[in-house]
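User: Hey, my collaborator sent me this sequence without any context and asked if I could get a structure. I don't really work with proteins. Can you help?
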Amino acid sequence: MILRNFWGIKLILLCAVLVVCVPLASSAYASGSKDDIFTRFKKPMPELKLLSEEDFRKATRPMKKKPYGQDVLEYTIRIPKGWVEPEDRGSSNFVLNKKLFLELNVFYGKPTPSGRSRIEVEAFDLAGNLTTEQWYLNYILKRGYTTEGFVTHSENKMESLIVSVEKDYTYYVRTVAIANGDKVIMVKYFVPLYYMNKQAPMQEQVLKSFKIVNNIERPPSEMSLYRFLDVAELKYPSSWTVYAKPLRNVDRMDVSLLNLREVAGKLGERPSVFTEGKLEVSVIAASAHETLIDEVSKYRQKIEASGMLIGDKLETKDELIYNENLDFAITEVYEGVDTTNNLSNYELWFTVGVGGNYYYLFMLTTASRNDRFGIWAENTQNYKVILENFRPMPGAFLDRNY
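Assistant: No problem. I've predicted the 3D structure and written it out in structure-token form, which is a compact way to encode the shape of the chain:
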């Protein structure tokens, strides 16, 4: 306990070394601020006077579907009586394609001059270690929707209300998204704007009736392994690329991990490759000549030399999980200011850890949450997974003469 308190005090002090006095405006990206992306989109759903349970059941009929014969997609729902389903896909032998979304079922109400109410059920691949909330917010952002309501019911269930324009018709679309296994099952209820007041209670109650039949755990993401000799073990997403620097001595070992995206070029041209996230990891012997504070200061200078300045501190990530073999660890998040490009916003996630006879430094450079939310969410979720799985090995605890 004495050791942990000692490192706790020392690490809190040394993290102050990271802060650079940069003339920035007050942070617009701090979690919980009025401009924070989560705050902007989260809104309560409207309160409605609903049908009694008896009247609702009389006005609807139950449906149970198992699209494409897949347990992960099986669901139940009650739909309004008189609605039609143009095609039953439940017995199809179609093979699931994880690259694209799947249209599972569609149910239609009666045509009207103002548009036609309908219910769509779709499935999407849940990838990149994103939480359901992050995945769903990214889905909304990509499509340019403005939310009238947005709530998180649980870790695996989201609900929203948006306005959508299709050709000459305007619809209120209430949506529920539920994560199951490696999929997100989404049901969307479209109501023409003209009929919104009349159909809104039915819209809400139909979505409340939507249930997943087989609750399946999300499979773990595919991970690869990198070892710093017998000192530490690093697990990282297999989709990321490792660049290990030459090992000059065992006092200091470095590796870089890149989240790369390939974009197809024009016919006959090579595809372009973009770096969407960069993680640098250093394992440093405590017996080396430099102190931990010196190492952090050198790290800061290295960041500045690359053209990235450390701006305002956004938050301390107290909720992160670390390996039990670490005596202490702390993670803080800062704004990153690119001196070469004022149009892009970045975040720097910095972790300092101590375990055995070694210091461990982690630095993630990513687009900011408000600038490119989907990339930010993928990078930071993978960063958390990497930290949770990082493990000092027995060699980190040996007394050696370097």
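In plain terms: Residues 2-30+220-397 form a domain with the Protein Transport Mog1p; Chain A fold (CATH 3.40.1000.10). You can pass these tokens on to your collaborator as they are.
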